[in-house]
Q: What sequence folds into this?
């Protein structure tokens, strides 16, 4: 079933990325938006993997992507822990942030991958700052776990850039 964005929420994936980057103390809605962005990120990784024939790079992009959906599920758990009720990240076909045709798909070049790695490292910093401001140890631990895995994603993307340079 299609997921409906609340009127006050970012209405596109680009706006959602920009929004979450400005949030220092997340509301339950911000964490729902993060869950949607994380879920969409799996698809972005799958789309970007179509931009290369290098099997090692494809494998890295697919495994990062699969973990983004895990992050979406953890963010959804955080929503519940913070009293936001039952929340499920939507499947790709129901995710409104994937409805546009100008999705921000990373170009598969060494520069593109290194830039994306910086974004992943930034994701860790964002999760850490959110965890530090959330007064629920279990929720904070879930956010920190996502953050730690963003570092893995960034490191894998740096390795993928090296693979491309062969
Ligand atoms: Fe993530
Ligand atoms: Fe990531």
A:
């Amino acid at each position: 079933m299609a997921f409906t964005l609340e009127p006050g929420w970012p209405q596109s994936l680009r706006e959602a990325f920009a929004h979450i980057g400005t949030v220092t103390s997340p509301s339950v809605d911000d964490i729902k938006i993060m869950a949607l962005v994380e879920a969409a990120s799996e698809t972005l990784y799958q789309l970007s993997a179509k931009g290369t024939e290098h099997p090692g790079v494809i494998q890295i992009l697919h495994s990062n992507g699969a973990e983004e959906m895990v992050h979406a599920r953890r963010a959804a758990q955080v929503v519940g822990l913070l009293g936001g009720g039952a929340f499920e990240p939507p499947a790709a076909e129901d995710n409104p942030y994937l409805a546009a045709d100008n999705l921000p798909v990373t170009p598969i070049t060494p520069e593109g991958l290194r830039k994306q790695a910086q974004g992943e490292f930034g994701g860790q910093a964002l999760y850490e700052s959110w965890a530090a401001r959330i007064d629920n140890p279990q929720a904070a631990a879930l956010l920190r776990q996502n953050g730690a895995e963003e570092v893995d994603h960034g490191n894998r993307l740096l390795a993928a850039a090296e693979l491309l340079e062969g």
